[in-house]
Automatic annotation (TrEMBL):
Alphabetical GO biological process terms: siderophore transmembrane transport
Taxon lineage: Bacteria, Pseudomonadati, Bacteroidota, Cytophagia, Cytophagales
Protein name per its UniProtKB record: TonB-dependent receptor plug domain-containing protein
N-terminal signal peptide: 1-20
Keywords carried by this UniProt record: Cell outer membrane, Membrane, Receptor, Signal, Transmembrane, Transmembrane beta strand, Transport
Length: 661
């Protein structure tokens, strides 16, 4: 609580420092017209920043203003509003992302934060849930589809590019505190302080967030029927520091994160007491933009990432391991060292080329055992990638052609091409996208199966959109995803590991309707998927051949904003998830029992008032999960983990105060 009082004192005792230099949290958001929103530059899917309608990918853009007005508590709240994104339970309290019906947790979706690759290199996972501080985020750019040609082997099914607030967004000092209370239990507390300033050619920013959340206040029942109250055994604590500076063409970014889960669920049978699980990351990203002329730029970049994911090595973990809860005590230290150089050439206003080469080394150090591959606590692999993408702006359409060649010393070579055609004609736009992607095996995949191959994905996407009026836009896209040789975790009574299975995939449709006016904003989207050639038994739902375990076929999201005054907004939101299936228990013959989970509805209301009492003091209050649904995170593969309950209704408040230099 000491941190709470410090932040509150800072907020309420500094109004005399405020100046006109304080900048809004975002220069983007619902105050813009529909035309302005349609032309916001976005670079996640291309070598050049293009508007969402011209971008050669199915993209979503979420701004700081969107996040603030929605009252979102974490990245799950944010991504739940994106078409095709759902969430599943892995093991040991860790949650992951599903994309268009496909389980993407292990190496199938790339998460970037200011250029730092957040996927850990042991299993290639990115655990989410009360992890990435939303108060630090300026925007999130998302590819709802493959990105391997641009980003490499973790971008198979999607890319989430998180961009934090920099000097130009902060322009002084900002402090935020938020608190959430569930019915009779503590829900969450978070405090963030940010500082940033531009000084001529030099700019710097520093941001720190300390938070504590409760995963759930409900009862978890494992696969064999043991239960415990999660209120006392599911704390999530996080310390997140992000900062850097830039000078002319030089940019340096630093990151430190210590994300800690308190969990008892482990893999299948729950433990008698909780064990802390840590995900630690230290990273540096240095790049330089060297303009040889107004048409040619060379961009060398160096990145270093040091991680200790899935770490549980305290006394409680050792005690659980000794009692037979194998895996409760584990610790691997990982490092990735990478360097790349890119060449960007604007031949003229109609032709752009972006090409480059990347070399990296993945290193693992097993602190509590040895790797099977070499019977040593140390392991390392080298990788070389060559990539290129060209953009041709013609009178017929914008044509994007790209490819990536990847060579890994253990599993060999992969080559993935990309072709996109986009066209905007007044109020109408059209996209035709054909891409291949790959999922590179991670250290643990290779260690359990040295013969494992990369999985390969082929995706076809078509999008059409039309601006109906000055305030309304309707967009629809169709997709077909086929994954060959998918890397799948398997578990039997005496062995577990990874192997290439036959085939899986999905196909479906996503619809987005946007209404934007001075007084009302609304985003209504619908997504629907069916399985496509799914041959992976552990993903199947018996009797429902067109579904995947854990994920609803249908999802509807509504985000609305009512602008009562220039400073006061009311922001209701709702999500509907159709029925889902998951394994929740075992029968007398120790066979897993399939359970049908009823559709659920999330309803939230958040009120924002800017400049309350004093200038630059913003206050938000709201309620999440008004319906108090019984939603649980389901394991999207049949491996013996029961569904993990989510939170009940939560009431929250947030205070944000900005001070200009």
């Amino acid at each position: 609580m000491k941190g709470v009082f410090i932040c509150l004192i800072f907020i309420f005792l500094c109004p005399h420092l405020v100046s006109s230099q304080v900048k809004s949290d975002s220069t983007l958001g619902s105050d813009l017209t529909l035309e302005e929103l349609m032309n916001i530059p976005i670079a996640v899917a291309s070598s050049q920043a293009l508007s969402p309608r011209e971008s050669p990918g199915i993209v979503s853009l979420i701004t700081a203003d969107d996040i603030a007005k929605s009252g979102a508590r974490d990245l799950i709240d944010v991504l739940r509003t994106v078409p095709g994104f759902q969430f599943g339970m892995d093991v040991s309290g860790a949650l992951g992302i599903g994309v268009r019906g496909n389980w993407a947790f292990e190496g199938k979706i790339l998460v970037l934060l200011d250029g730092h690759e957040m996927n850990e290199t042991s299993y290639a996972t990115t655990a989410i849930g009360d992890r990435f501080p939303l108060d630090q985020i300026e925007r999130i750019e998302i590819i709802r589809g493959p990105g391997s040609a641009l980003y490499g082997g973790y971008a198979e099914l999607g890319v989430i590019n998180i961009i934090s607030k920099k000097a130009e967004n902060i322009g002084g000092v900002s402090a935020a505190v938020s608190y959430g209370q569930m019915q009779s239990d503590f829900g969450r507390f978070s405090s963030t302080v940010m500082v940033g300033k531009e000084l001529g050619d030099f700019a710097f920013d520093a941001k720190v967030t300390a938070s504590k959340h409760l995963r759930s206040n409900r009862t978890y029942t494992d696969i064999v029927g043991f239960s415990y109250d999660m209120t006392d055994d599911s704390d999530i604590k996080n310390i997140h520091l992000n900062g850097g500076f830039s000078f002319k063409g030089l940019s340096v970014r630093l990151l430190h994160e210590n994300y800690r889960l308190e969990q008892r669920d482990l893999f299948y049978v729950s433990m008698p007491e909780a064990v802390n699980l840590e995900f630690k990351t230290n990273a540096v990203n240095i790049k330089y933009s060297w303009a040889l002329s107004d048409k040619v730029t060379i961009m060398p970049q160096f990145q270093y990432k040091d991680q200790a994911p899935w770490k549980s090595n305290g006394e409680a973990a050792q005690r659980m391991d000794a009692l037979g809860y194998f895996g409760a005590y584990s610790y691997r230290k990982l490092a990735k060292i990478s360097g790349n150089i890119k060449l960007n050439v604007d031949f003229n206003s109609s032709i752009n080329l972006n090409t480059g080469v990347e070399v990296y080394e993945n290193k693992g150090e097993f602190k509590t055992g040895v790797y099977k591959l070499n019977n040593s606590p140390n392991i390392s692999f080298y990788n070389l990638s060559i990539f290129s993408q060209a953009l041709f702006k013609t009178s017929f359409a914008n044509i994007t052609v790209g490819a990536r060649f990847n060579n890994h010393e253990q599993f060999g070579s992969s080559f993935v091409p990309r072709l996109a055609m986009t066209k905007t004609i007044n109020n109408f736009h059209f996209k035709l996208l054909a891409s291949q992607a790959f999922r590179a095996p991670s250290i643990q995949n290779i260690d359990t199966n040295p013969e494992i191959d990369p999985e390969r994905t082929s995706v076809l996407e078509v999008e059409a959109g039309y601006k109906l009026t000055d305030n309304m836009l309707l967009t629809a896209n169709l997709f077909k995803t086929v994954i060959d040789d998918p890397i799948v975790f398997f578990y039997t009574a005496d062995v577990d590991g990874y192997d290439n299975f036959n085939k899986t995939g999905s196909e479906g449709i996503e619809l987005v309707y946007i209404y934007q006016s001075k007084s009302i904003s609304a985003n209504l989207n619908y997504s629907y998927y069916l399985t496509k050639d799914n041959k992976v038994e552990s993903y199947k739902v018996p009797g429902e051949d067109d579904m995947m375990l854990g994920f609803a076929k249908s999802q509807i999201n509504l985000l609305a904003g009512l602008h009562i005054t220039d400073n006061f907004t009311i922001n209701p939101s709702a999500t509907y998830l159709g029925k889902r299936y998951g394994y929740s228990s075992i029968d007398d013959n120790f066979e897993p029992v399939l359970e049908e989970f009823d559709p659920v509805v999330f309803v939230n209301v958040y009120l924002n008032y800017n400049n309350l009492f004093v200038k630059n003091l913003d206050v938000g209050v709201g309620v999440h999960n008004i319906t108090n649904n019984d939603y649980s995170f389901i394991q999207p593969y049949n491996s013996g983990h029961a569904p993990l309950p989510s939170k009940s209704t939560e009431y929250g408040i947030k205070l944000v105060y900005k001070v200009g230099f």
